[in-house]
Every structure is written in C-alpha cells, then in structure tokens.
C-alpha cells in the first residue's frame, strides 16, 4: 500500500517536473520584461476604481499633443457617469441571462431528472438516453455552448440564455435525480397502498417531499450562473463580460476594478438572499 | 367472508415460507397473528394485501381471487379496500395533517376529482370528512400543522384519520406498535380497534407483545415455521400456550 502510494507520488512529481522543464526549454516560463513595474501599475489603477471619478474626477481634462495643442477636452465626471449607466444596463442583461437560462434549465431538466432517478423505476429505454443526455450536457462548458449558439442565433443575450440553459440542464437533472433518490420510499409506498393511481402517488407523496430540494438546487444553480453569465459577454452574448473584455483589451484596470466590484457585490448579494431562502425551505 | 384460503402455500428460494391447509376469517372479525421471527406472519400479511402471490392453493380476499394474476385496476381496487398500518406509519412528512388524512381518500376518487387530487384540490365534502376524522382522533383544529412537526402519538392519530378516510373493509397491521413505548403501543392498538369497529372492517394484525392481544383481537393464530400451530379465542391464549409456541424456536 505504502509502496503504491510512493510510486504514485513519484509519478506525479515526474509529471510536474516534465511540465516545468518543457515550458522552460521552450522559453515560455517567463514573467515578461518588467513584471514588478507592471504589477505596481496595475495594482495602483485597481486601487482607484473608475467610478470614483464621478465625484472626484477633473471636470476639464485636456488631452494635448506633444507640441502642446489641445486635442480633446473631457469632463471625467460626465464620462464616468455615462459609463456607470452602461454598467447598470450590462448588469441587468447579465441578470436576465442568468435568470432566464436557469429557469429554462430547471424546467427542461425536470422530466430528465425524474426519468434518471433509479428509485422511480422509469423504463430503461427512456432512462438510459436521458442519463446519457444529462452527462453530455454537463460535460460541455457553457462557453463552448455559447460559442456554438452565437453562430446559430447570432450575437446577444439569447445565445447566452440558451448556453446557460443547456449546460445547467445537465447539472439540474443530476441534482434532481439525487434528491429523488434520497426520498423516503416507505411513505410513497404507503400512499400507493391506499389504491392511489400513479399520478396521485407522484403529486401527493413524491412532489411535496422533493419540491423544497428542487427549489434549493435551482437557487444554487441560479447563483452559479450569475458568475457564469458574466463571462459569456466575452464571446458576444452581452452583459458584463462585454465590459470586462473591453476594459482588459484597453488596459483600463480602473474600469475593470469597477466592473469586478459590481460582479462581487451582485454575486455576494444573491448568495446572501438565496442561502437565507434555502435555510427557510429545508 | 373477508379471507378464505385453501392449501395456501408460499415457496421462495426453495424454502416453504407458509403452508396453511385452510383459513377462514369472517367479515368484521379481529384476528391477531403471533409467532417468532420467520414464522410466516409477514408473508401471510403480504399475500392478503396482494403484494405477494401464493405459489400454490387458493386465496380469496374480499371476494377477489389473489392466486391468479391481477390487472392493475383490480390491484388498485383491492388496495382501496385494504387499509395498511405499518411500523413507522409512513406519513408524508412535509404535508399537513389534513392533507395526510385526505391521502386515504385518493383511491376512491374518479375522473375529474382524481385529476384535481394531483393538485391536492379536494371537494368540500372530502375536506369536511377529513376534518371530522381528525376531530374524531382528537386532533380537531390541528389540520394545518405539518406532520413532521407533530409528536409520535399525534402522528399515529393522523394515520388513524387517514384510515378513516380510506374506509377500508379490511385493515392489515404489521407490528404497528413495534417502535413505541408501552403507553404509545396501547393507545395505537386501542385506536386501531376503535377505527375497525367504526368502519365495520375486519382487523388482522401481527403482534409481538402478548399484552396487546386483548386490545386488538378476539381470535389468535399462532404460526411456527409457516404452519398453523393453534387458532384460539384470545381468552384461551394463556402463558403456557405462548410459551410452547415460542419455546420451540429453531
């Protein structure tokens, strides 16, 4: 046993060593020319998020050419206030994508989850394909679905909603099936023993027992999708991701700081609300 | 006649679990089955409930021949008329007492009423029945409480109310009081007996504690290794009879 573990640890160490050695050999293991200075500059800009300019920015910022000619005059307060509006709209889009995508996933996953729950004994010709579909959906990342869907339905939130829905369907279906599998089957059998039909048994014994868990899992997936949908903008599905991609490609770290603050507040706020609801439900 | 059996034999895994040459239980009778573990008590009860088909012989329960395969509709019809009380009672924890009582009514609903019951939408008459049943078991006005927040004793009463709503002609109780303290066990047995009497139903129970026999039965069947050892009125089941039944445990 100990020998096997040592062998495994050695194999792992060898793999790590090989990764480092090959990267170093090809010269890719470098931190750039001025890592320290760049880091300081980025941290400095991060420490002053752009939204502060709405109150503290110069009202008349002049951009001049090398010979001193004024090229453009900008009111920083106005510019950043406008940016905040755009940010609010993007946040709303992200919220729309996460909410509708999660709802669609929850609804579509329901029949699949029930079919794959082993204790409900669905016929295997239905259960096996349902399980396969859920596994496949879970295996493909939201971003990949997004890239494919942007090609099909075009740029915009619809692609984001569908991408979220497809990937989350796999997750929701598996969580649903697990919730059903932990059910007290004796109570279900007791209802069946009164002569109730299959539909009556399902809605009077199975459904009331699993509904709170389904809702709790839906909230969890929804919260997860809030994070996921911020990234979807990177591939053109709209929302906060678009602003993140814009800020990073223009090296506007102060604006990125503002966007990330919004993401953090949004996700943390949603987490606080959803965990409170989940506690009340169970 | 509630139960009629001739040459009733159940074989499973090459072992004879039950072999009764004849058994007749009249409608409205209260019968207890006793015996050590593996004596065939639960097997008999499972056969009577239609959960297990006899390997040989004839068995008729409430006029339904159970030695032949039953269709789904016939089986549901039988279950409607057979009320089962099991260890642990098995209520739906997240539903309230009223909804749990109304579960007893599910099998009796037809057509649109059966569809509405999917949404737990019951007629005023059924709801009134359930409220009356809860009141009869001493839970008047407690219908809105979730059963997983009720005490053990209160949960038993909800199970009785469910039985009242089901209006079975035959009640099968498999060690219903196994997990209860002595007072709880007595309350449950009294409740079962009263419910059977109110419904005019036959009551067949599997019991382990001899002191509960007078509460539940007028007649006692003693089983050992799947065979009937005695069939006596409860008053004649004395300590030596019980000792001889349990003494020869294999």
- Strand count, sense and closure of the main sheet of chain B? 6 strands, mixed
CATH class of the domain at 3-93 and 168-247 in chain B: Alpha Beta
DSSP strand tally of chain A: 2
Task: Assign an overall shape of chain B.
Answer: globular
Please provide the ordered H/E string of secondary-structure elements of chain B.
EEEHEEHEHHHHEHEHEEH
Q: Helical element count of chain B?
A: 9
Oligomer: heterodimer
Q: Biggest interface in this structure?
A: A-B, 22 and 34 residues
CATH architecture term of the domain at 93-281 in chain A: Orthogonal Bundle
**Lateral arrangement of strands in the main beta sheet of chain A:** 1-2
Descriptive report:
The complex is a heterodimer of chains A (282) and B (250). Chain A has 282 residues and is mostly helical. Chain A has a domain at 93-281: MetI-like (MetI-like fold, Orthogonal Bundle), CATH 1.10.3720.10. In chain A, 77% of the residues lie in helices and 3% in strands. Chain A has eleven helices and two strands; from the N terminus they run H-H-H-E-E-H-H-H-H-H-H-H-H. In chain A, helix 7 crosses helix 9 (198-232). The longest helix of chain A is centred in the middle third of the chain and has 41 residues, at 76-116. Chain B is of the alpha/beta class and 250 residues long. Chain B has a domain at 3-93 and 168-247: P-loop containing nucleotide triphosphate hydrolases (Rossmann fold). Chain B has helices at residues 41-48, 72-81, 97-103, 111-116, 124-136, 152-166, 182-199, 213-216, 239-247; strands at 3-12, 15-25, 30-34, 56-61, 64-65, 82-86, 170-174, 202-206, 219-224, 227-233. In chain B, helix 3 (97-103) crosses helix 5, helix 5 (124-136) packs across helix 6 and helix 6 (152-166) packs parallel to helix 7 (182-199). The chains are: A mainly alpha (282), B alpha/beta (250). Chains A and B meet through helix 8 and helix 9 of A and helix 2 and strand 6 of B.
């Amino acid at each position: 046993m100990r020998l096997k573990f040592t062998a495994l640890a050695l194999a792992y160490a060898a793999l790590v060593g090989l990764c480092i050695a090959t990267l170093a050999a090809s010269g890719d293991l470098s931190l750039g020319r001025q890592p320290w200075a760049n880091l300081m500059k980025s941290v400095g800009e991060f420490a002053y998020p752009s939204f502060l300019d709405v109150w503290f920015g110069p009202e008349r910022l002049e951009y001049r050419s090398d010979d001193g000619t004024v090229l453009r005059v900008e009111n920083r307060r106005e510019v950043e206030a406008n940016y905040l509006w755009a940010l609010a709209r993007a946040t709303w889009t992200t919220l729309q994508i996460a909410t509708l995508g999660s709802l669609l996933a929850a609804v579509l996953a329901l029949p699949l989850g029930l079919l794959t729950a082993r204790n409900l004994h669905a016929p295997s010709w239905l259960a096996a394909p349902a399980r396969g579909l859920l596994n496949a959906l879970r295996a493909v990342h939201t971003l990949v679905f997004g890239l494919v869907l942007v090609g099909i339905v075009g740029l915009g939130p619809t692609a984001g909603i569908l991408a979220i829905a497809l990937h989350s369907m796999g997750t929701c279906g598996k969580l649903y099936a697990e919730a059903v599998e932990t059910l007290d089957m004796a109570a279900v059998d007791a209802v069946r023993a009164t002569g109730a039909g299959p539909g009556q048994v399902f809605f009077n014994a199975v459904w009331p027992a699993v509904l709170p868990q389904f809702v709790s899992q839906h909230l969890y997936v929804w919260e997860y999708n809030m994070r996921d949908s911020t990234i979807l903008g990177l591939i053109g599905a709209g929302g906060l991701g678009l602003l993140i991609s814009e800020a990073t490609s223009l090296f506007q770290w102060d604006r990125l700081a503002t966007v990330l603050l919004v993401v953090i507040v949004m996700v943390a706020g949603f987490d606080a609300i959803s965990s409170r609801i989940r506690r009340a439900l169970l | 006649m509630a139960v009629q059996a001739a040459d009733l034999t159940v074989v499973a895994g090459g072992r004879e679990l039950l072999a009764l040459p004849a058994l007749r239980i009249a409608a409205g009778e209260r019968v207890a089955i006793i015996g050590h573990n593996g004596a065939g008590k639960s097997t008999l009860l499972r056969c009577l409930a239609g959960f297990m088909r006899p390997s040989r012989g004839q068995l008729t329960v409430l006029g339904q021949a159970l030695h032949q395969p039953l269709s789904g509709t016939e089986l549901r019809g039988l279950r409607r008329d057979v009320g089962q009380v099991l260890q642990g009672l098995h209520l739906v924890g997240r539903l309230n007492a009223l909804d749990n009582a109304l579960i007893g009514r599910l099998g009796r609903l037809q057509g649109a009423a059966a569809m509405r019951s999917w949404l737990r939408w019951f007629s005023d008459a059924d709801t009134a029945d359930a409220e009356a049943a809860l009141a009869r078991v001493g839970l008047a006005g407690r219908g809105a409480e979730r059963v997983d927040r009720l005490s053990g004793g209160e949960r038993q009463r909800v199970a009785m109310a469910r039985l009242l709503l089901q209006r079975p002609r035959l009640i099968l109780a498999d060690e219903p009081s196994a997990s209860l303290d002595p007072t709880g066990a007595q309350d449950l047995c009294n409740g079962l007996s009263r419910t059977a009497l109110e419904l005019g139903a036959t009551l067949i129970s599997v019991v382990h504690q001899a002191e509960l026999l007078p509460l539940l039965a007028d007649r006692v069947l003693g089983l050992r290794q799947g065979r009937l050892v005695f069939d006596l009125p409860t008053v004649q089941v004395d300590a030596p009879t019980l000792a001889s039944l349990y003494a020869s445990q294999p």
